[in-house]
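Lab notebook page, bench 4
Experiment: in silico fold of construct C2
Operator: M.H.
Input chain length: 107 residues
Purpose: comparison with the prior construct
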Amino acid sequence: MFPHEVEESLRSHPDVREAVMFTSSDPDRLERVHVAVAVGPGAWPTEQQLRCWAREHGDARCAPGTVPILPAIPLNGLGKPDLPALRALAGERSGRAVTVLGARRVV
């Protein structure tokens, strides 16, 4: 499975402007697949709707575990997706301790 395979199914959704796949490790050291999406103005898809879309419009094994919906994909200084920031979002959602922009907190 390649990132573009996972991202393309969500990019085909009419409300999605951008999609970026990233992974995170859980406490059991298993890799979890996530796809952060940026939606267009006035679009309100739910995470569950986007996960279903990914399963229906792509390979079922490419369906992400979570789909954080963002106003824009965070970028690093080189203009590429900021994967550490996206992984921090995934950590927040799982209730783990995370570092967000230098501030550690437990969610």
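Observations: The mean pLDDT is 82. The first helix runs from residue 3 to 11.
Next step: discuss at group meeting.
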